[in-house]
Amino acid sequence: AFTVALADVVHMREADFFGIVSGSRDPLKFARSGLHETKSSRVNAPVIEEFPVVLECELFEIIDTESIYGIVGKVLNVQAEEYALDDAGRVDAEDADLMLFDPFTNQYYCTGSPVGKAWHAGKKLKGLAPGSHFYRRITASCRSGASVLNRTILVREEMSVLGVCAAILTAFRAAFYHLCCITSDDTLYLPGILVDDEDEDACPMELYGLDDLAPRFTLVYDFGEEWTFDCKLSRKEVTVVSDAQAVFESGTGLGIWEDDLAGFRAYVNGELDPEGGSVEQDDNVYSLPWNLEMEKFGDFARPLDPDTENAYLSEEFANNMIALSGIEDAEEDDAEDGKPDNLVSLFPDDDEELPFN
Q1: Prediction pTM value
Q2: CA atoms of 144 and 265, how far apart (whole Å)
Q3: What's residue 344's pLDDT?
Q4: CA 282, CA 294: separation in Å to the nearest integer?
């Protein structure tokens, strides 16, 4: 018995790696791929969990001649992810984003366009420690105080622009009560729910990845206050033994002061007593940021513990992705303004302009 797993574009590198490395020579072959397996319920063979379509087969015939050696199987069952099926329940190659191999040009294709070089894309996994993944480094600095509020993080190289936005803001302890956008080379990226099908001025974050971003890009959080972060994306890949989508490396400052950019600027300018917790100045009252664990203003500069920051990233990243991409699943029935009740705060006011610059 055996199974046949059909690979999608997202797992091109792993599929190519399976074809260029022999399991008899490298007993850690499957572990190096970073994929996961479960036993088939129909045959005595494994099923790769990450691949969208798997054929479960029993051996029917072995063809062994001078010119060909072939294995013929009888398909007993087909496992497929729901998104890989059409309305009639049949596998849809386009929806599944299945990858095709052209042996004449040694290219992988998807809907007519090559997505990688066969016998080459998987070479990076050779000798890779089991459990390792490829990451790209992002450095983000707050424009209102780059020296006192900045982060360096690693994000998985297959991450979408939406994931990049969520990872950076999670690292800065944003509460995700406001919207965000990314601008890169004059291209505006917004959460998909805010982009109309006919909108030519913005791109849905979910449909774009790291390679679509320029080496320098800008992230804006809270379209009212406009917390602006200048970001640098490294083109060099980094391998880390981790399953995390994002990894904290270093940083300064506890995080964003939700709803109080003016207070943060006063802190940056040295106008707030480090030992104080509230101050009235020129008709303005500056208080400790409600979203950060601080007893006095001076706590903002305390050193960040990598283990604590990574634990927070690991716990909150998925929830914050939902806050940005799960808007479509929210109920709209009871919202007075036609916006989902539980996510009304994520939408800008009708007269609030999006920050294009």
Answers
A1: 0.74
A2: 7
A3: 34
A4: 24
